[in-house]
Amino acid sequence: MRIASYKIDDHNQALMAAHQRTFEYLSGEIDHVQDIIQQLVAFQVGIPSWALGTGGTRFGRFPGGGEPRSLEEKIEDVGLLHQLNQSSGAISLHIPWDMADNPAQIKAVAAQNGLRFDAVNSNTFQDQPGQTHSYKFGSLQHVDKAVRQQAIDHNIEVVRQGIAVGSNSLTVWLSDGSCFPGQLNFRQAFQRTLEGLREIYAALPDNWKMFVEYKAAEPNFYSTTVGDWGQSYLFSSKLGPKAYSLVDLGHHLPNANIEQIVALLLMEGKLGGFHFNDSKYGDDDLTVGSIKPYQLFLIFNELVEGMDARGMNHATDLGWMIDASHNVKDPLEDLLQSVEAIMISYAQALLVDRKKLLAAQQQNDVVTAQEVLQQAFRTDVRALVAAARLQAGGALNPLALYRTEKVREALILERGAKTMATGL
Ligand code: AOS
Ligand code: ZN
Ligand code: ZN
Predict the structure, then answer these.
(1) In angstroms, what is the span from residue 251 Cα to ligand 2's centroid?
(2) Is residue 329 part of a domain?
């Protein structure tokens, strides 16, 4: 379904006077407002295909109805989000959950919805029906060459499918590791994994990137073969210039200083992209910005500083993707909230007075340095983000319009109340 454009116009007209008031006040406080708005308009976040259905835990899943039943419907859902916020212009596919058997048609549906394809994800953490070898004891790290070969072949097939739809990056997240001390020879597991990644890397087209995603624990609870940014960095630097680390915010040990990790990976030219989400305890995959918004801002602060120092394009030089889904919200509302949180943090990071911060750092003026950061973080930039949306043709308040248009109800009518999106 699509929302008629006059409905977006009517919605915007109804909110315009209030928006203008806050926007005018805010623009009086900020330098280069128009430049910032242009940067916000250009910034697009990739939506994971697996977050369009209701998430679950190993204890249960409570699907909400109207979930997409096919890849085309997943693309249409992301198209809806993009129509509302104009900041969700990409979808990230997960193979084999999203088999694109008919790439030409899939590409056409994406184009109709104004979307491009972000990184494609491989899956060697589940056994699929009819699969020859099991991944119970890992995939690329496995002691049996035949299992490793199956995982390599799968990743190469994912690249093939990605090429067919016009993606240009592969995210490899391995659940490989061990559950108990003694189970695994760490060094050999690393070397076997590297060997497999090298074969996959060799199959990448020249303009492709490989993102090596790391994760501290789960499903393996003693060791993970790509367990932290150090291991991911080792793999990506040994692989070559097309390989990068991918930072999923929920994949660190508690209280890890993620912004420092981001700064150093960026410095080394080895930061490839993000899986945004939020967490209280572990890989909770909660709505972005719902638990630790200051951390998210500090990460964006390092990103803006580091990307500018390297002359990078904020919008295009890293993969910006969400990896969040939960079991008690309408997935589309959850994603609207996540994208909004990302845009807010990015806008706040653009407001940081860099000269003043640098001077404070040079003078060891700790108080001023903190004030500079918190001045930006405590600025309510929602009107700025809304102004960018308005300029791009989106809705001033996407969530409100989603509700008044009864989008979920319409999707339930169209697709049924008992639908189950493919994915976890
Ligand atoms: C798993 O924890 C990772 O975040 C991966 O990115 C994974 O492929 C994705 O979450 C889908 O399960
Ligand atoms: Zn992830
Ligand atoms: Zn995860």
Answers:
(1) 8
(2) yes
The residue whose CA is least distant from atom 7 of ligand 1 is 173
Look at ligand 1, atom 10, and give the residue with the nearest C-alpha: 323
258 is a domain residue: yes
219 CA distance to ligand 3 middle (Å): 10
Place of tokens 């940081």: 352
Q: From ligand 2's centre to the CA of 45, what distance in Å?
A: 14
Both structure tokens of 238? 């040994």
pLDDT tens for each residue of 114-162: 999 999 999 999 999 999 999 999 999 999 999 999 999 999 999 999 9
CATH number for the domain that contains residue 183: 3.20.20.150
Count of domains observed in the chain: 1
Phi, psi values for residue 146, rounded to 5°: -65, -35
DSSP 72-91: HHHHHHHHHHHHHHS---EE
**Cα 255 to Cα 297: distance, rounded to the nearest angstrom:** 15
ipTM: 0.99
CA distances from 208 to 58, 201, 319 (A): 35, 9, 12
Residue closest to 44 by CA, chosen among 324, 326, 313: 313
> Which residues surround ligand 1 with Cβ inside 6 Å?
50, 121, 173, 213, 215, 248, 275, 283, 323, 424
pTM of the model as a whole: 0.98
Q: Which residues contact 202 (CB under 8 A, 6 or more apart)?
A: none
Mutational pocket test of ligand 1: of 95, 248, 279, 288, the residue with most ligand atoms within 8 Å of the beta carbon: 248
In the reported structure, the alpha carbon of residue 105 is separated from the centroid of ligand 3 by a whole-number distance in angstroms of: 30
- Residue 391's CB is within 10 A of a number of other CB atoms, namely 14
Secondary structure (3-state) at 273: strand
User: Which residues on neighbouring strands pair with residue 121, listed in sequence order?
Assistant: 94, 171
Domain that holds residue 106: 45-342
On whether residue 378 sits in a domain, the answer given is no
| Residue 101 placed within a domain | yes
pLDDT tens-digit readout, 57-85: 888 888 889 999 999 999 999 999 999 99
338 sits in the region (left: phi over 0; alpha: psi -120 to 50; else beta) called: alpha
